[in-house]
Amino acid sequence: MRDVLVSHRFSIPWIVVRGTDGSLWFVAERLQSELRFDRINVNVTADERVAATITPYQYVASDWAMLGRLVADFGPEAGLIAREIASKLNEDKETSKP
Description:
Elements: H1 2-7, E1 15-18, E2 24-31, E3 36-44, E4 50-60, E5 63-66, H2 75-95
Antiparallel strand pairs: 1-2, 2-3, 3-4, 4-5
């Protein structure tokens, strides 16, 4: 997880939450400038399906404004990150088999 996120310039996940269904949620950010950052939410289900969403934020006055899809569409990158994480999980599972 960490290597994939870092390769896309995200920080190491600073929040990890376990869902009641056994899923895990990871949250990380990447700074784009002094006024903007992107947040990624990665969900790994109990059966190791991976989904990711990236939301861009900009500091406006004293609040954070969420930027819309007209400004930035991170769907393709989020999908790529989810596939890379799923692939790494599969590799780890294969190498841990006796």
